[in-house]
Design brief:
0% strand; 166 residues; mainly alpha
Length: 166
Amino acid sequence: MIRECHAIAQAISSHAGASCPRLFVVHVVEEAPGFVAWFNSLVTPGIYQPLFLSVNGVALTITLIVGFGVASAREPMSGIIGAAWVGFLMLANAVFHIVATISLSRYCPGVVTATLIYLPVSALFFRAVVRELGISSLVVAAVALLAGTPMFIHGYLIVFQGSRLF
């Protein structure tokens, strides 16, 4: 059983870059029906659904470019860029959704996919970058956390201050 789990983890981590766009769409599908109303209950001025969709459209485009770039280039720099984007888009976003749900004691649209998909895929992606591209785990962690900083700040402002960074 342990070997089978390891084999599955290897397969997922090897394709994590190419999988990110599909997983991002799954997350947005969970988020889209209720996120704008949830956000507007906390932050003034609020946002509108067209803005939510356009921001996520841009993020999907970047995710496609980065994901397929990492999957095809297999170079250390593509791994660093991928770790930065996954740190910003998936890891920091997952932390935001989880902290918001716990702190506010109510469902934050997107928390299910953030927890069940974004966290494990982020870890698998980072592991793949370390193992397959030979980048130090400390460097990958530093890049991911540094790149996630704007999202960490944005999430803090939304949840605890009722404002936003962007």
